[in-house]
Predict the structure.
Amino acid sequence: MAKKKVIYWFLLLFLLLVQGGCLGVRWQEKETHILVYEIEPYSSSGYVLPVPLARVAVSGNGYSSTKYTDSQGRAVFLLSPGTYSVQVSKDGYESVSDTITIYTLELTPGYYPFYLVRQ
């Protein structure tokens, strides 16, 4: 009888842990890199230059955040599965916007390049 109770308690504990993990969204969040570049105007090789300090606004799926790119032209967000609107801007450049979709079963970080054009 005592052995059955221990098994039931372990089963209950296991189910609670599994359910708690499934209900939490954090495990589904995906590291998402927004990469902002400017195509070098006179390059015959198509080189791109990172754009530091570009404003990147991401919104959608109940989420809204704004970050600025680092010296490599990168802003990193943790996003749950869903569709998001991304708006990139910087003084002296034309603003760019697009949508991105984060899928549930993606396990690797996502990289989304955006290209700015000088005004």
Notes: The beta strands are 30-39, 48-50, 55-60, 63-68, 74-79, 82-89, 93-94, 96-102, 110-118. Residues 14 and 20 are 10 Å apart (CA to CA). The chain has a mean pLDDT of 84. The chain has one domain: 28-118.
